[in-house]
Design brief:
homodimer, Arc Repressor Mutant, subunit A, 2 domains, 73% helix, 0% strand, DNA-binding
Chain lengths: 212, 212
DNA sequence: TACTTGTTTTGACAAGTGACAAATTTCATT
DNA sequence: AATGAAATTTGTCACTTGTCAAAACAAGTA
């Protein structure tokens, strides 16, 4: 079940401290999602964050723990989009509900491209990070999609394809956003523009559901 | 245009030399596709290849050149699947041609999951590697898909969606194979099994084309 | 004031990185 | 067997990596 976040754990001792943590997290999210875990050094993160050396270790204990904190924030951001979408979908007629949620998921993926980037990045290997991501976030999301899928199939709103393929098509549809740089080089189009996001949402919603 | 490969450049001086190069390349492909460029060290490659230290530098000059050689072999492997598919598709009735090629592409992606892995990996950033991949391989492939798309649209075999979205849906459909580890953790299914490959090929072909 | 607590700064270190160069081996041809 | 080029092995370099530890600083409390 997708639900709203629990508040950040640490009590914000001081204003400045919170700012340091925040800048580190934002730098970490940007760099991890662009260069991967191994490709990003703690010093690079601190430099990009504009803070002194070793502050990451002090505030988060280790690179591993810091990475987890980064993914937490990213997933939180996804929840910030998906939670309200679920709430709103309750008021939508069943015939449109699946389509509505698919479109919202696509828009969320575009708003938080770091999420898909990290997922694609870690999904290929066998690291402790993959296990952690699946346990913490992916499993929960998968179950939600599975429920949605079952319901949609009962209502004959989803074509006759297996759940696994449905799921990875939906997830894989975010690849255009996570490969925005390549997309620009290839087509000259900005994958993260409003027009492209709409086009992608329209396309997936059309293909993954059955027209009335 | 997708065409058959040019032969490997180097004249195979001796049997053993060729074996060393081959083992290095195979190890490099496996490791680069699982851990990314920065996440893989030359010593790790040499260890996995079972050869002595520094032999990679000797045979390939540098890590950069070696990486290029690895991607060359991977793309060559993709061509080994796509080339014959194109040839065969000439004999297929136009109404089935697009569907046939889509299915073949999906099967190729499953047979060479390293290709999609590397593409997803590099597509997110802005490295010299991305530029090189696009110049060397991706552009050529994109043009091929674009031609196929135009033809399919004229014949009313492809739904009314933009080319860019069509392309990234097709490419993104390989994500299930490149995230095989995650898929196993999540669903218990082997994404690279014959059954799953078939299911994925069927699904994409069905969704991206219009039924007669 | 002195003391405590949380945070920042600086110094250091062992392990690992890619690359270079010289020493050594291998092996087909004389 | 002798030669010479290709291939392998070993040694080393300057640099980066993550982390630890101690020093310096700030701000509040007794």
């Amino acid at each position: 079940m997708i639900r709203q976040a629990a508040a950040e754990i640490a009590s914000p001792k001081s204003e400045k401290t919170e700012k340091t943590r925040d800048q580190l997290l934002e730098a970490g999210i940007a760099l991890f999602s662009q260069q991967g875990y191994e490709g990003t050094s703690t010093r690079q993160i601190e430099t990009q964050a504009g803070v002194q050396r070793n502050l990451m270790t002090y505030h988060f204990g280790s690179k591993e723990e810091f990475w987890k904190a980064c993914t937490e924030r990213v997933y939180e951001r996804m929840r910030g989009f998906l939670g309200p979408a679920f709430t709103q979908s309750k008021d939508i007629e069943p015939g449109e509900r699946v389509r509505f949620l698919i479109r919202r998921y696509v828009r969320a993926s575009a708003a938080v491209p770091e999420f898909a980037r990290i997922m694609f990045d870690e999904g290929r290997g066998n690291s402790w990070r993959l296990k952690w991501l699946v346990d913490q976030y992916t499993r929960e999301f998968y179950e939600t999609v599975a429920d949605l899928f079952d319901d949609g199939r009962k209502r004959h709103m989803i074509p006759d394809i297996p759940l696994t393929n449905f799921y990875y098509l939906l997830v894989g549809s975010a690849s255009i956003f996570s490969m925005a740089t390549e997309c620009d080089l290839l087509t000259g189009e900005d994958a993260l523009s409003e027009a492209m996001i709409d086009a992608q949402a329209d396309t997936i919603a059309k293909l993954l559901t059955i027209a009335d």
